[in-house]
Structure formats: structure tokens, C-alpha cells
Specification:
This protein is of the alpha/beta class. 31% of the residues lie in helices and 17% in strands. 44% of the residues are buried.
Length: 414
């Protein structure tokens, strides 16, 4: 049975599709799993044992934006999703989709417990705090435990758009290491960061300053640079930043995964919804066995991957697509919208053929305030009207996704 119509409890032990590699399977029998077929392609596998390409949308809601009186009648969001060929919902919405039989994601929200580091470009739990494992376990038990036997649940997302010190495109701001070195001493991450970085430089701040090429004589000097938003960007600092970010990410992903699996051993762990590129240091630790399927921002899909990835926050209404090099069709120069959609169609087909990609999630259900069609990013405008510039292309692609995937290599036997 497909995940959109999953029953509460399987009546028989589901069979694995013939031709799949048993040693690649992740997840529990009778729930959504992932596995690799004989051609090397990763697939999601529904509770009945059928492989599928997951097509979801974040933020799905039953009604248009709150307070919008321009819509005379509510629309059926689940019916629209099915008509456009989607088979799941992501995170950030209400129970629409989930209550209508579609597969869905759960979200834990580890950034909402314990001491949280919040600074421009940073939003993370203090994973160095002694109480972090206990707090993470309590959070997972409260959110994951009650749904441990839900067969329509795809898996668990750890957090919705945590921030790892990355700035917006073209923006330079203090990185995660600099932020942690500038925290108040009440944060365990402050002491861990200084212990970490001084250990790399003979435990002398003078050696650290020389290696970084900055003029600081004490810890307060680093804090002052951060307070005035002066980012340290030297090559020496960048090396230490990458090491610290990996250590931070390792503790975050292993701790969060341990908490989730203790509360719910049946469902996949999907990492975070990053909401944008996070860089190689974070992705290097967002890997199996901590994470079963990496919910990777679609801008950072790997050329090759040792494990499955789910393309996150897909949306072609981005400057990079609108500002693509000019192209022609039949001797006519394409408009900006035509160029955007041409590149979007090509991106979708590349994802369907990518051996590691098990599906994609569209960025958002509703337009955000201030966005203007045809370059808004929602599938539905604030007045409830569908964004045909997106939905027509998606409705044409989605029913073909699995055929495109199978055409990229030998077809798995089902």
C-alpha cells in the first residue's frame, strides 16, 4: 500500500522489492524505509514494500493566510496536493495532509530546549552543556514516542532551519567558532570553544593570534570583534572554524539521533531542514549512522553520495534561476519566466535521475509577505489562488518522476 493510504498497522510482514540490496536497508520492517536497488539507486520504500520517489511540500495548511478575507470559500489543500502529484507533506504546516491520508514528516525541535545559542546567523542548542543529552531525550520522548507506531510517518526532522553561522549570499558575518568564543561564560559552548582552539595553538593566545593574523591579546578582544560584527576571515581562522563546526555538528547529530531512536526505533532519522546551504563541515557530520536520509538543501546535492539524500527546499523562483544566461527557442529570446521554468524543469529531471536522491520537498505552500508572482515561492498565493507558474510544471513532472528514475538504469522488480 502506498504511503498516502498507509494503514495504522500492517497485517502481514511486508516483502522487500526483488532486486534490492538487503545490506543497504535502513528503517524498520512495516514502516517507511530506504534501500538501494541493484542499479545503485536509492529509493524510499513504503510500509507494504513498494519503492517510491517522495514528493512533498513544506508548510501545508488548510486555509490561506490568516486574516485574508479575499477568499470566499476554503479550498481542499490535500486534494490540490494529490492533483499536482504530491504524495507527502513536509514540516511547518498544520495537520493538513496528515489527516487526509498523505505520508508526513515529524519535527522534534531540539533548538527549543535548554540553553540556545542565538546570534546573527547562529541558532543552535548548546550541545556541550552537561544536561544536553537528558534534555534531548526528554524532548524526543515527548514528540517521537506517541507516533512511534504510525506507519504514515516518513521520519523525523531534528530542527526547522537551525543556523550554523552561515550568512546570506554575499554576506560576511562572524562564524560559529567566533560566536562561541564570544558567548557569556554561562554557556558550556564558550568554555568548550576556548579549550578546543587553544589546544590547537600550544594553549597560548599569542600563538592563536599569530596563526589567525589578528591582533587580540585576550578573550575579550575576540568578543569585542564579534560585538562590532567584525568577522575574522583569515585562512588560519577558517581552518579552525571548519574543525570546530565539524565537532559541533558531530555532537549535535549524534546526540539528537540517539534521543530520537531511544524514543522511536521504527522511523527514519532525516537530519535537519537546513533551509539553505550550510557548507561541507556540517554536511560531513550529517551522515549515517546518525542520519538515515540527509534532508540536504537542493543547492548542495552531492555529485556522488554513499547514502540517500532528500532534496530540500526546492524552488526555482530564486535569483540564480531568474538571472540565468539568456536563451532562445525557435529564434525567439526566452522571457525571464520562461528561462526560470526551463531551468526548473531540468533541475527536477536531474534529481529524478540522481542515484542518491529519494525525493524532493518544495520550499513552501503559501507565498511569504512581500513576494510577488510570478517570482513568489509558494504553490498557493495569499488569496488562495494556485501559483500556476509552479503548479503546472510540477503537476506534469510528478507523475513521471518514478518512470524517469527507473529509466536511468535497470528497472527494479516490484
Amino acid at each position: 500500500m502506498a504511503p498516502a493510504d498507509a494503514a495504522d498497522e500492517p497485517s502481514t510482514v511486508p516483502a522487500l522489492p526483488e532486486g534490492f540490496r538487503v545490506n543497504t536497508l535502513r528503517g524498520a520492517v512495516g514502516f517507511v524505509r530506504v534501500g538501494q536497488d541493484a542499479a545503485g539507486r536509492w529509493w524510499m520504500i513504503d510500509p507494504a514494500g513498494k519503492p517510491f520517489f517522495c514528493r512533498a511540500v513544506h508548510g501545508v495548511r488548510a486555509l490561506p493566510a490568516a486574516g485574508d478575507d479575499s477568499v470566499e470559500l476554503p479550498f481542499d489543500a490535500a486534494a490540490r496536493l494529490r492533483r499536482w502529484g504530491f504524495n507527502a507533506v513536509g514540516i511547518g504546516g498544520d495537520n493538513t495532509g496528515r489527516d487526509d491520508g498523505l505520508a508526513y514528516c515529524g519535527m522534534v525541535g531540539f533548538c527549543d530546549v535548554g540553553a540556545v545559542i542565538q546570534a546573527p546567523g547562529v541558532r543552535l542548542p548548546d550541545v556541550f552543556a552537561p544536561e544536553w543529552p537528558m534534555l534531548a531525550a526528554d524532548r524526543a520522548l515527548a514528540f517521537c514516542g506517541p507516533l512511534a507506531h504510525e506507519t504514515a510517518l516518513l521520519g523525523w526532522v531534528m530542527d526547522d532551519r537551525p543556523r550554523w553561522g552561515q550568512g546570506e549570499v554575499g554576506e560576511v558575518r562572524p562564524g560559529l567558532l567566533q560566536v562561541c568564543l564570544s558567548l557569556e561564560p554561562s554557556f558550556s559552548a564558550y568554555h568548550a570553544a576556548w579549550e578546543f582552539v587553544l589546544a590547537l595553538h600550544g594553549r597560548r593566545i599569542e600563538a592563536l593570534a599569530k596563526a589567525w593574523g589578528v591582533e587580540v591579546v585576550n578573550r575579550e578582544g575576540v568578543r569585542e570583534l564579534t560585538r562590532t560584527e567584525q568577522a575574522i576571515t583569515t585562512r588560519g581562522y577558517a581552518r579552525d572554524e571548519a574543525r570546530w563546526t565539524r565537532e559541533y555538528a558531530r555532537r549535535y547529530f549524534t546526540g539528537a539521533a540517539t534521543a530520537i531512536r531511544a524514543a522511536d526505533p521504527n522511523h527514519l532519522v532525516l537530519g535537519c531542514r537546513f533551509g539553505g546551504p550550510v557548507g561541507a563541515s556540517v554536511l560531513a557530520e550529517c551522515v549515517y549512522p546518525s542520519v538515515d536520509v540527509v534532508l540536504c538543501d537542493w543547492s548542495e546535492l552531492p555529485a556522488q553520495s554513499a547514502g540517500p539524500v532528500w532534496a530540500g527546499d526546492v524552488c526555482w523562483a530564486e535569483p540564480a534561476f531568474r538571472e540565468a544566461p539568456s536563451a532562445t527557442r525557435g529564434g525567439r529570446k526566452l522571457t525571464t519566466v520562461e528561462r526560470m521554468l526551463k531551468r526548473g524543469r531540468a533541475a527536477l529531471e536531474r534529481m529524478a535521475r540522481h542515484p542518491a536522491v529519494v525525493g524532493f520537498v518544495w520550499r513552501q505552500w503559501l507565498d511569504e509577505p512581500g513576494e510577488q508572482p510570478p517570482f513568489a515561492r509558494g504553490l498557493v498565493h495569499g488569496n488562495g489562488i494556485e501559483a500556476r507558474e509552479h503548479t503546472e510544471l510540477l503537476a506534469a513532472f510528478n507523475p513521471r518522476a518514478e518512470s524517469l528514475r527507473r529509466a536511468s538504469g535497470p528497472q527494479p522488480k516490484i
